[in-house]
Amino acid sequence: MPRARSSPQLVIAEIIAVGSELLLGGRTDSNSLLITEELASLGIEVRFKSIVGDDRADIVRALKVAASRAGIIIMTGGLGPTVDDCTREAIAAAAGRTLSRRKEAFDGMQMRLAQWGRSPNKGQLRQALIPSRATVVPNPIGSAPGFWLSWRRSTVISLPGVPAEMAAMMRETVVPLLSSQVARRGAAPIKRHVFHTWGLPEADVDEKLKGLISKQSPVDLGLLASPMGVLVSLTTKTDGRASAEMFASLSASVRARLSEWIIAEGTDSMEAVVGRLLLEGKQSLALAESCTGGLIGHRLTQIPGSSAYVDRGVISYSNKAKIDLLGVPADLIERHGAVSAEVAAAMAKGVRERSGVSIGLSVTGIAGPGGATATKPVGLVYVGLDAGNGNAFTREHRFHGDRSVIKQRSSQAALDLLRRWLLKAQGTARPG
Amino acid sequence: MPRARSSPQLVIAEIIAVGSELLLGGRTDSNSLLITEELASLGIEVRFKSIVGDDRADIVRALKVAASRAGIIIMTGGLGPTVDDCTREAIAAAAGRTLSRRKEAFDGMQMRLAQWGRSPNKGQLRQALIPSRATVVPNPIGSAPGFWLSWRRSTVISLPGVPAEMAAMMRETVVPLLSSQVARRGAAPIKRHVFHTWGLPEADVDEKLKGLISKQSPVDLGLLASPMGVLVSLTTKTDGRASAEMFASLSASVRARLSEWIIAEGTDSMEAVVGRLLLEGKQSLALAESCTGGLIGHRLTQIPGSSAYVDRGVISYSNKAKIDLLGVPADLIERHGAVSAEVAAAMAKGVRERSGVSIGLSVTGIAGPGGATATKPVGLVYVGLDAGNGNAFTREHRFHGDRSVIKQRSSQAALDLLRRWLLKAQGTARPG
Fold first, then answer.
1. Nearest-CA residue of chain B relative to A230?
2. pTM of the predicted model, to two decimals?
3. Which of A313, B143, B166, B215 has the fewest CB atoms in 10 Å of its CB?
């Protein structure tokens, strides 16, 4: 049944991130992901994101643009104690409000600082300045309070840029506030589901999904390629026309068409999936990393509780380390070269046997830019797995990209070899 | 001497990144950094950045906003072969141009695909559509060409979102184009210099730099805190009033005031600095990582040529691995716990002695969320360095943050211990 659309503005949000350093990029923006997901659960779609430097006039400009196209404006950053922090002044100027020290803002800050044995300094006192007719958003973690106000047809919410503070304030105050605003208008939650794939080029993923979704469908299909694989997303449009059944059926079709190439869904990840499979299979793991230099160990140990299945890793950057720590025969390296299927197999076997774990996983390759030979180009990578009892495999890969990309792709290839082996071992009787 | 300002619009740029997935954040945006730096060298300042989804109407809106405030608009993304790629249609719609297949765009694409043994498919044919009165920007790496056109008072440049393609097209075509445009107007290059610091909280950095720069100064000072330390930047405003001497003198003052806490400057990094110090000192390194899980090895091996000084690493996640691979005495772990200064020292000594390198570097700590005890909280981390001959040090740290943040800070603390030791060893006669 078609639903009468509520004011379109209300369910369109814009994020304004304030900070001259943010214009440069080169950093991972974790704030947007959290804001987008929290708002989506309320049926609010982030349609625009603006980044602007610490310049009052530029912030005012960005705010005016946002107010012309979004009913909800979430600003992050520029609330700090230093003079270049001018978000509060810009909002007051744009909305024609005066700034004054607000008791509830000051008290919260003073209490927080007292816990740390400090009292507010001059810069921090500025942080208690709040525009007139704005409501304070308490900061349960840091000293800087936020605030929100209604201006023109929009709700403007100003939060600190520090991810942990912003996240706590979103969850404790902003989400309940917006929830009550949108509930009255009957906005439907936006559904979004993401599939992480590995091993198929973007063009092949596109080909496999051809014809799945028509132009008129209320569900959008998105593809995004990165060194870690292709991300496939299904998103309902904001008017909520897609039923839960339709969404589930499309998700099932994506799953069926991309099957083994889907490594994780939603907020899940390769390292978390592999971790669960290792736990479920009561397996323990040792790593022998050459060209990845520790990246596989780093990724696996990002998962809380990974010490239950990651026993150790060896970063065998030199040939001597491969011989000493992994027992790779020197003449094997001599005959085939350190970057070879034979050496990858010997590394995986060596690390498994010497550590007494059930699975050894290895990678050896040429990450570049140096190190290539006439027969072995930059990007040539071998991954190996040894689980004893004749369960040994290697795979050859030829990756393109710079050193960092080749390291990322190598780590993904090694973890995918492990993932596929664990899935197979789970599904079949283990060879004796 | 004050310089007559050229049209302010011309030296203000806006980046519009197109892609629904980009609204989510959670990814590192390397394109903005490159664009910002290339434009800065021409005296063009990126003042705004907008991110917009794959929606034609939204892209048109963003373009109109950008044309009202920026003389140069660099758009990235949305030029791919799939139907959700609609940047070229949006630009044509906004500027009132028609799209038609352009011979030079098609020929370049066909030639590129032929090198890979392929011919253009239907989606790729769309990529040769170029708006009327636009100029093709050749893509020397991938198949999708870009283009630029003049619209209202702005130059609109559309490039693919793939970083390597975008970078090549910026350097080969866009920079020369803009260079000739701005040369006529006498814009002065923007000077910007960044200092990476570690070990001082943001408030302390702010305090140390107090009074360095007046409000009227043509140089801006910026601070940005992250888990890896505080970034300090000096930037001249766009009108180029700051002389080279003034900028150099301010840089020298920052250097003097923050001295030992500056770990790197500009595009340099902790891992590159430590790598050079190891090379210069003819040192070789072995790592013993516990809570960082391979992150230190990963960071050091991001640097090309790091195999010259990184011999190996051991990720000793289990106690057994610490005993087996590093020779840490079992009773030392029993008495002091795996997270202790004693075990950090034994790990560094063990990995150095067993690998025959000159320096062993270790880290052991509680990354959380589990693993804390009554006396050892999450975030308690010990780093250790052993260089033989009685050169052994450990440092205790108490970090806040989640697992990922604690791993990052631990890796930075270990590398800083190494950096400080190498600097000292370089400056003084080594004890015999």
1. B21
2. 0.83
3. B215
